[in-house]
Fold this protein.
Amino acid sequence: MLNRNLFSLEGKNILITGASSGIGRSVAVESSFSGANVFICGRNVDKLEDTFEKLHHGPNQNHKKLIFDLNDEEILINVLMEVDKIDGVVLAAGNDLILPFKFTNNLNLKNILDDNLIGNVSLLQNLTRANKISPNSSIVFFSSVNGTLIGSKGHSLYAAAKGAINGIVRSLANELARKKIRVNAVAPGLVETGLFQINQNIISKDEIESYRKDYPLGFGSPEDVSYLTIFLLSAASKWITGQIITIDGGLTIN
Amino acid sequence: MKLDIFIENFKSQFDEPENLNLSQETIFRELEEWDSIVAISVIAMVDSEYGIKLTGEDIKNSRTVNDLFLILKAKC
């Protein structure tokens, strides 16, 4: 029978970076429940194993764990040799940095670019070069409201990395459109993840509560962001490309 | 570790330190110029000047500049 559920990921191979925690983990889990075979990538064996256990393991699903450091290109190439054709890529690996500009240095800049931009782009370069991405695929980057619509204090280098992602999304969408491969970015506001917990050690709880007031729908959960990502991976979004899609509980309407 | 130097370092995290009247007894959170970026700057300054990691809770638990100085001394 013809599958009329365009929102389903059934039969699709989806590769996800940063799958060992936070939004990446949630995208992996929700994609598996939407029927996808997921290839989860991460550096941390134990955390990746935790993600793997949370996946939905249906009779036709064959998930894989790919353990490597995105910034080690040599290993990355070897790992990708083992990967089948891919129908979706989610580049969720990333890191945050809150530091006033005057305290930042070139090493901070290099690290934030490595973690958010360079590792993910390098993976994508190798996937496209090896012709691993099928026609009609969808590529989803992770941007942020920072560097897209707002610029929070202390986020200058992070916003620079996310701004660079927005640039690559638009140009790459144009290049890959010939093969009907779509490229978009999700730009979330504040999502309560492990990174958020780390930031709580820097900013006091009172301050966080006052930020919460700026969000008409409150802070987001990783699942809130995953549902948009799944839509972008599915055939239901087949006319959307080159877009930076904000998902922020209403933060930027104020 | 000297209190007067710490006060100077603390002061220099504000945009216009020359207009700021700050002593060890100042309740820094009540200063009009105090905000989250100054708080993060203080944490970053303490890390780079003293090699000590302060947290947001340390700042929250301090009332005066001297309170923060005492937390700093306890951590070194």
